[in-house]
Amino acid sequence: MKIKELGIDGKDVGNIEVSDNIFSLKPRKDIIKMVVDWQISRHSKKTGYTKTRGEVAGSRKKIGPQKGSGGARHGNITAPIFVGGGIAHGPKAKGKHRVKRLNKKVRKLGLKHALSSKVLDNKINILSDKDFKNFKTKDFSKFLSKINSKSALLIYDNENEVLLNNVKNIKNIKNIPEIGTNVYDILKYQNVLFTHSSIKKLQERLLK
After folding, report:
1. Are residues 111 and 177 in the same domain?
2. Hey, which residues does 194 pair with through a beta bridge?
3. Binned average pLDDT, 10 residues per bin, the chain of 208 residues
4. Domain tally for the chain?
């Protein structure tokens, strides 16, 4: 399939042939969700931790006779039923992740399905590299208005200082290197903008 390449003025400058194995798949929500859950869990550690009756401080002596008191039978004061006692079946996280691992092939497949879903919504654009020499913030703001984008993810290959310095001043814009392309950010932002070189490099990496 082909995706239009746009200049900073929003006009078409040509088409780029892209792989159907990446951009023309039928999106599977289950795979996309699996990868998103994995990403979120890697950045949000579980921190809750409670002590059991064997870990809390307190006497281990039986608090009363087994029988004859007319009340219930009890062991020591560290039992969960007493104030200050241990917690039964509480969280034992110690900073562990909710999702420990996800197969690399699944992560790569999730990225392909996320990109395909954006293509179906016509929310992927390729920005021509030729205009970066005279690139200005107001030019990029006008470009976003022309493609009706309220938020965008810019994926670049080479670190062009002119491009990155001007983009960072615009709200709801995030720029990441091609190697950092991920499912969560692709879904979070309304439009995904590739530079000419970054989309070529991404395809090479995903088709290996």
Report:
1. yes
2. 126, 155
3. 88 90 96 93 80 94 92 94 94 69 93 97 89 77 90 86 78 92 97 93 93
4. 2
Same structural domain for residues 143 and 197? yes
Q: Give, in order, the Cα–Cα distances in Å from 155 to each of 10, 73, 110, 161, 201.
A: 17, 67, 17, 14, 11
Identify whether residues 78 and 161 lie together within a single domain: no
Q: How far apart are CA 208 and CA 194, in angstroms?
A: 20
- Model pTM greater than 0.90? no
Q: How many CB atoms lie within 10 A of CB 61?
A: 9
The C-alpha atoms of residue 139 and residue 137 are separated, in whole angstroms, by 5
The residue range of the domain holding 14 is: 2-45+98-206
In angstroms, the CA 54 to CA 56 distance is 6
